[in-house]
Amino acid sequence: MKKLGVLTSGGDAPGMNTAIRAIVKAADYYGVDVMGIRCGFQGLIDRKIHPLTSQEVEDIADKGGTILKTSRSTEFLEETGKKKALEVLRDFDINSLVVIGGDGSLKGAEKLHDRGINVIGIPGTIDNDLVFTDYSIGFDTTLNTVLECIGKIKDTDSSHDKTTIVEVMGRYCGDLALYSALAGGGEIISTPEKPLDFHTICSQLRSRINRGKNDNLVIVTERMYDLQELQQHIEGKLDINVRTTVLGFVQRGGNPSAFDRVLASKMGVYAVDMLMGGYSGVAVGVKENKIIHQKLGNLNDMKADKQEKYSLLEKLLN
To answer: Cα separation of 33 and 24, whole Å?
Structure first.
């Protein structure tokens, strides 16, 4: 391997820059040139490629977002787009690639692997929805941001005896809601894995109010409810005032936590080591605090067993 490409794709996640730095540094150790591909797979198609040096990435580990920019490419989903991407990689003499991103990005990485490019994937997504790895880059930082926001909301809820519904990100994965509740951030949670209907949410709120707890926090994963409808239902049934807060993209920003920086650094170096060892078509992950790898085509074959975490939560929320 003489030339390595790296790109970030999909939603940005704190720690992506740290991973880029680790990849460039590790490649430099092996005497391999690194080409940065801007704006994800679309940037690859559009030939937005430039050399990355160790000096250029020296001070980016603590910065949020991604210096390589990111995008979601509909063109790459088509066969013509994939062919263009392959042509560009060959034109730039790039035969090895590291893709940092979420589920869709790693599926894109697999498509290039199937067409003869040596590819390693690194999970970078705040949703933590890739079950082959315990944690993805960006999740810890986002969780801490959620907890900080929730803490401020709870202060004013306590002052006014208010109930607030807080919507967090996660798409189809409830880890942000689950872990924030485990960390003491919420009393009632509803996630895609354990959804609560309106009746159950009202019942749990009524029980807490009857015990004298008049300030309550309901944490829900995005895309599950019409929040205005849920708010009106609770107010009508319980005769209380309810606020709603959507944390939105504030969750994605900010400097990566120490945990995410260390994780991203380990994954970046491991990805380069894998390529140097002749591996391709795998994604890097972490299990029981050990860096592991899994075939890109098998990332969804594993099942995330969250029953133990939900069992802990039920005990904490009683």
So the answer is: 8
* Residue 240: partners with Cβ closer than 8 Å, 6 or more residues away: 163, 205, 209, 234
- Give per-residue pLDDT as tens, 283-314: 999 999 999 999 998 887 655 566 677 777 77
Q: What is the pLDDT of residues 142-166, one digit of tens each?
A: 999 999 999 999 999 999 999 999 9
Give dist(CA 76, CA 281) in Å, integer: 18
Spell out the domains of the chain, with CATH numbers in brackets: 3-138+256-298 (3.40.50.450), 139-253 (3.40.50.460)
Give the residue numbers annotated as catalytic, written as ranges. Answer: 127
Residue whose token pair is 């519904």: 165
DSSP state of 120: E
Backbone torsion region of residue 288, taken as left when φ is above 0, otherwise alpha when ψ lies between -120 and 50, otherwise beta: left
Residue 226: exposed, middle, or buried by beta-carbon count in 10 A (0-12, 13-18, 19+)?
exposed
Neighbours of 95 (CB within 10 A): 17
* Amino acid at site 15: G
- The count of residues in the chain is 318
Express each pLDDT in 232-280 by its tens digit. Answer: 999 999 999 999 999 999 999 999 999 999 999 999 999 999 999 999 9
Token code pair at residue 19: 């991973």
